[in-house]
């Protein structure tokens, strides 16, 4: 502490304070690389914490709430869709995979985000974790649009889903490759000693470390924004609007309410709601990434990015908790199934005898798991989700 005070006094009147510290810190702390680097970086490098303490606490609490709600909501959604007889439809398979992707986003991305908010440097994990974090984040971000686009496939559903995951991983691989953990400061300030400042190691887009790769990044980021955001959302919204118009028109023509058409309409509403939620939640994230290529003023980029980073991050991680909420709001079937599931878990003795879960469970007990599901509950395997 006294050494720091002495250094500050010695460099206080210097015109280039950081250059003075670059000389004084190694002289005073020649016995410790860590203390030497902390001495200089505390005054002349970016703040170790991303925000001031009070704001950072609020962001942390918000992220923890999102994590808990997202985990509970998506685990419940998966359980309901897998176990409840009302939800045994082909569309449920796609929704389950969306929920799994949301869980991966929350479990992989959010903890890293919290750690980095509190300590931006040095990167504390193996370097490969930086690549995997970027790869998984990009894959789980772009695949929901692919899932929604193939939801009409009824045959070989599992193969279609596997292909979607593979395609998403392939297109996300450049982001995993071009993100890396590296040293911001390759030499000690004011020297060319080729010895990096070890505390400056950060997990970032590689263009920060190598500006010559900027043209390649411009292509990759714009391609991703178009192929996995702008174009899919536009196509999906137009198609779903056309489906809704066609279903409504057919119902008017025959002057009756067909259950299959009703199911298609409600399923379209659910999937369109998911796409709209994804659009709202991912738009700031895409905007922030592309903004880097159009603003040349580094101070303006840094100032604007600080706010956009947390807004886009908050909305990005909000998306996984919106989907289970949408299922409950739009789907009466899902609400009923969720209620049955929760009652069955916490108070099975109070499960109504007229509930589907009760009849399904009772029938299974009587028939030793061999009874036909259609005879137990009268559920038809249709495309109805609601």
UniProtKB/TrEMBL annotation:
Which residues are in coiled coils?
none
- The reply on keyword Membrane is yes
Q: The organism sits in which domain of life?
A: Eukaryota
Q: Enumerate the InterPro entries for this protein.
A: GPCR_Rhodpsn (IPR000276), GPCR_Rhodpsn_7TM (IPR017452)
| Topology class, membrane | Multi-pass membrane protein
- UniProt key word Ion transport: no
Q: Name one Pfam family in it.
A: 7tm_1
Q: Where are its TM segments located?
A: 61-81, 93-112, 132-150, 157-178, 219-245, 265-287, 307-330
What GO MF annotations does this protein's record show? neuropeptide receptor activity
Query: Know the name of this protein?
Result: 7 transmembrane receptor
Its Gene Ontology cellular component terms are: plasma membrane
The chain positions of domain G-protein coupled receptors family 1 profile read 73-327
Task: Provide the alphabetized UniProt keywords.
Answer: G-protein coupled receptor, Membrane, Receptor, Transducer, Transmembrane, Transmembrane helix
Query: Mainly localized where?
Result: membrane
- Protein location: Membrane
């Amino acid at each position: 502490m006294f050494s720091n005070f002495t250094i500050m006094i010695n460099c206080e009147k210097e015109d280039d304070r950081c250059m003075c510290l670059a000389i004084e810190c190694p002289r005073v702390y020649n016995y410790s690389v860590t203390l030497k680097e902390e001495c200089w970086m505390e005054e002349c490098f970016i703040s170790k914490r991303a925000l001031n303490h009070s704001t950072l606490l609020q962001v942390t609490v918000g992220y923890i709430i999102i994590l808990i709600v997202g985990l509970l909501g998506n685990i419940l959604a998966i359980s309901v869709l897998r176990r409840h007889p009302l939800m045994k439809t082909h569309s449920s398979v796609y929704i389950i995979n969306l929920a799994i992707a949301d869980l991966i986003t929350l479990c992989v991305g959010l903890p890293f985000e919290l750690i980095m908010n509190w300590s931006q440097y040095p990167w504390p994990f193996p370097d490969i974790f930086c690549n995997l974090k970027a790869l998984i984040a990009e894959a789980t971000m772009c695949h929901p649009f692919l899932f929604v686009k193939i939801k009409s496939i009824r045959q070989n559903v599992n193969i279609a889903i596997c292909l979607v995951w593979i395609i998403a991983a392939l297109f996300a691989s450049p982001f995993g490759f071009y993100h890396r953990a590296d040293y911001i400061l390759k030499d000690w300030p004011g020297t060319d000693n080729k010895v990096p400042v070890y505390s400056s190691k950060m997990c970032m887009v590689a263009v920060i470390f190598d500006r010559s790769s900027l043209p390649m990044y411009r292509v990759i980021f714009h391609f991703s924004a178009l192929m996995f955001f702008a174009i899919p959302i536009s196509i999906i919204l137009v198609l779903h609007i056309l489906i809704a118009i066609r279903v409504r028109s057919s119902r008017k023509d025959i002057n009756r309410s067909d259950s299959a058409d009703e199911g298609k309409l409600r399923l379209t509403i659910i999937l369109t709601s998911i796409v709209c939620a994804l659009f709202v939640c991912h738009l700031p994230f895409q905007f922030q990434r592309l903004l880097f290529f159009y603003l040349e003023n580094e101070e303006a980029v840094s100032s604007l990015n600080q706010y956009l980073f947390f807004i886009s991050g908050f909305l990005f991680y909000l998306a996984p908790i919106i989907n289970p909420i949408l299922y409950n709001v739009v789907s009466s079937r899902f609400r009923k199934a969720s209620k049955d599931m929760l009652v069955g878990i916490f108070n099975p003795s109070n499960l109504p005898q007229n509930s589907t879960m009760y009849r399904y469970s009772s029938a299974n007990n009587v028939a030793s798991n061999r009874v036909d599901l259609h005879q137990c509950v009268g559920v038809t395997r249709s495309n109805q989700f609601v």
